Amino acid sequence: MTEITRFAPSPTGHLHLGHVASALAGWRAAMESGGTFLLRVEDIDTVRCRPEFITGLYTDLEWLGLSWPRPVRRQSLHMAEYRRVLDALAARGLLYPCFCTRRDIMEAAGAPHHAPDGAMIYPGTCRDMDPGRRAALLAAGAPHALRLDMARALCVPGARDLTWHELGEGPQPCQPERFGDAVLARRDVPASYHLCVTHDDAMQGVSLVTRGVDLRPATALHRLLQHIMGWPAPRYRHHPLLCDATGRRLAKRDGAACVRAMRMAGMTPRQVCRAAGVSDHISAVSSAVGSL
Ligand code: GLU
Question: What residues does 165 pair with on adjacent strands?
Answer without folding.
Answer: 171
